[in-house]
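Hey,
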Amino acid sequence: MLPSINGIKDFIWSLQTAPKIKIFLWKAVSGALPVADNLISRGMAVDSRCQVCGLEGESINHALFTCTLARQYWAISNFPRPHSGFSTSSIYSNIFYVLKAREIPSIPSSISRAGPWIIWNIWKNRNSHFFDNSTSSAPTFHANLYEEVNHWFLIKALEKSEKAIDLERKKKLIFGWKPLPPLSFKCDIGYAWSRQKKESGASWVLRNDSGQVLLHGRRSFSGITSRLDASLQSWLWTTESLKTLHYDSIIFVSDNRDIVAAVSDPSAWPSLKFYSQMIRLNLHDFLDWKVQFMNRRDIKGASLIADSVIKEYRFQSYIASGPPLWLRHIFRTA
């Protein structure tokens, strides 16, 4: 008889991880993932072998912990395995070990907190191999994994630390208007567009009044049919991101002269009314804002981040503190 898994299920819902990963882990311990063993037990005629390593029989435990691909990803992730290695038969003990790793003092928190994401990304790569015959290389798996984990925890930390600012904004609404603070933040907005692929890259770089890079972000969009639409998506995503992060007084800088002019004086640019209205609708949520045009060379860092989506296929969307490591030389001289 199998042991009760209710304790593990309850623990999963209390994890610090993305909701989609909680649901996935719940399905994993409930035996509800479509691996070969489960499909055959339901009467489906499928190949009983693991499609990655060729082993006869593919259980959930095998796919996530003991398959050659899973073992490779666990190794590159630097996540310590149990002394005797992962169990070859018990999905419950393996997942329980990974989830409880945050309570092991000898494991750095930056690694132990990544456990749920490691399991999730192993499953995604298993599916990519099954359906598209492609998987991430070990270095790419490692880089994307920790980028995703650090992004999630950064957002959660910012949300927590900004609660006091949000409370102060509510006080202003309740007790009346107070003079606006000076515009102490500057945000460079970058964008790139591929006419052939109908894809665009969006980026932003937030600096304080001394020029220090506080945050930067990158995102990709598909189905973008014009350069103007690419610029619009970058503006909308930037303003939505910074509003979510509770930055209220910002100078927004772009190398799209037409967009800046239309936002500054919509009546003078009737042909761009749709674009100016969409952007100004987002800007109205800020306590104070200003838009400014600068040449592309003057916001080179933001432009290169956006270009990386199109030219280097960096489709992973994220928000991170400081400048990107690969462009530190640019921001040091900016």
